[in-house]
Amino acid sequence: MKKLPISAVAKRLTALFVLGLSLSGLSAQAADFPNKDRQITLIVPFAAGGPTDRVARDLSEALRKSLGTTVVVENDAGGPGGLIGASKLLRANPDGYTLMVHHIAMAIFPALVKNLPFKVDSDFEYLGMINDVPMTIVSKPQLPANNYKELKAWIAANKGNINIANAGLASASQLCSMLWEASLKVPMTTVPYKGTAPAMTDLIGGQVDLMCDQTTSTTSQIEGKKIKAYGVTTLKRLNIPALKDLPTLDELGEKGFQVTIWHGLYGPKGLPDDVKAKINVGLKAALRDPEFIKKQEGLGAVVITDNRSDPVEHKKFVQGEVTRWTPILNAAGVYAD
Ligand code: ASP
């Protein structure tokens, strides 16, 4: 065996010692996770009171039970597709105490945001998907149309003078309205907000005409007759009391029109594997929590029960969504700087 000089042996021993220290530090951190004296923050990259916020708040309750520690929601709204909140997550300590609930923007960011400051496939830890959510075409209560046929007639009569709210570029509401406008072949004026909660306030108040938003935010407003609803973006009608009579856009003549968005749980890159595994166990328990399921289903959302609740499948699914949406969005020719 080749003999090493003393200095080289000392260097190797020091390196091993340092490695040992950092590994024991990591596993101590992971063994301790979740520490009951620390709270987990769920970043929501949109305004409070909107659909992503709704999902995160319901999930935080279920995670509190499954992880046994306080889980709070923090709204960091702004930027295309919730870019501000997503960027904040990436600056957080990768210790499991700062996570993010985000939606389909994770798949449409690459096509819609030029100069994206991160890579969606390698800068985030994928922790499992949460739900699939349909969307609805809704209007201000003052709009005279009471069904889709009347809405189309109103649109034809008001071409060039119609505005449609969304949560900013690369938001789910923008994606849906862009596809709907393309299907109608009628461009509308986009009014962006920092989430669909403030957009909903203006829709109810009649400051904007239309919006396409998740059922997790529109259901209660439709039920309370604060806004009008014309169609749902799934191929099958929804099976919830408030929306069961709402026709699908497909049956209304927008053939094949289908937009279902989804939410997932993310962490900053570098989360230790053990912490990641513990969060995933907590998430899966939350997805089986009858109270969480009841709240989500009551709003038309479908809680994930398939293997997309696994981090690897979550990431694969998002990559598939990037592949699906990129050519559609490129063809539409919209982007943000
Ligand atoms: N529904 C919003 C969107 O269109 C986001 C939100 O406010 O939750 O992306």
CATH topology of the largest domain: D-Maltodextrin-Binding Protein, domain 2
**Strand coverage percent:** 15-25%
State the low-pLDDT regions, or none.
1-25
N- to C-terminal distance: 60 Å
Q: What ligand species are in this complex?
A: aspartic acid
Radius of gyration based on Cα positions: 23 Å
Description:
- The chain is an alpha/beta fold and 337 residues long.
- The chain folds into two domains: 38-132 and 262-332, D-Maltodextrin-Binding Protein, domain 2 (3-Layer(aba) Sandwich), CATH 3.40.190; 134-232, D-Maltodextrin-Binding Protein, domain 2, CATH 3.40.190.
- Helices cover 45% and strands 18% of the residues.
- The chain is built from eleven helices and ten strands.
- Strands 1, 2, 3, 4, 5, 6, 7, 8, 9 and 10 form a ten-stranded mixed sheet that branches.
- α6 (172-184) links the parallel β5 (163-166) and β6 (189-192).
- α2 crosses α9 (273-287).
- The longest helix is centred in the N-terminal third of the chain and has 27 residues, at 6-32.
- The protein is globular and about 65 Å long.
- Residues 46-47, 50-53, 166-167, 171-173, 195-197, 213-214 line the site of aspartic acid (ASP).
- The site of aspartic acid has 16 residues, from α2, α6, α7 and β7.
What attributes characterize this protein structure?
alpha/beta; globular; D-Maltodextrin-Binding Protein, domain 2; 10 strands; disordered N terminus; 45% helix; 337 residues; binds aspartic acid
